[in-house]
From TrEMBL:
Residues 85-125 form the TFIIS-type domain. One of its GO terms (cellular component) is nuclear DNA-directed RNA polymerase complex. Its main location: nucleus. Gene3D superfamilies: 2.20.25.10. Keywords: DNA-directed RNA polymerase, Metal-binding, Nucleus, Transcription, Zinc, Zinc-finger. This is DNA-directed RNA polymerase subunit. GO terms for biological process: termination of RNA polymerase I transcription. InterPro entries: Rpa12/Rpb9/Rpc10/TFS, Zn_ribbon_RPA12_C, Zn_ribbon_RPB9, Znf_TFIIS. It is found in: Nucleus, Nucleolus. PROSITE patterns: ZF_TFIIS_1, ZF_TFIIS_2.
Amino acid sequence: MPTPRLAEKIGSLLFCPDCGTLLNLPRDDEVVVNCEQCGHEEPASSYENIVITTRSHPDAFPSALRQKGKTQTKVHQGDEALLKVTEKCPECGHMEAYSKEMQLRSADEGSTILYTCVNCKHGWRVNN
């Protein structure tokens, strides 16, 4: 059976204990892991076969998309259904706008979200 590569023995993301920067996994010929940010060095062997436990709470990583989902209301204007969302108007600073998603660019590019301020009717767009 071949000897496992050093990166396979370590098998996880490594963070600098001094500054928290994500460390590069060492190559098989490297005997130290060094932080490019602060210069901290440790023997690569100190990371071999360690047990890493990761825990997080669902709200630990806030999502702008999840937040927008909580603040959307469907509004009908004539035949068109728009979403009323919490979005700051760049013109007047009001925090509500109507939004509509459209594919204005080529199919291999993201969609465009068109916003109209509820307060001043200013329109703007955001490319996804």
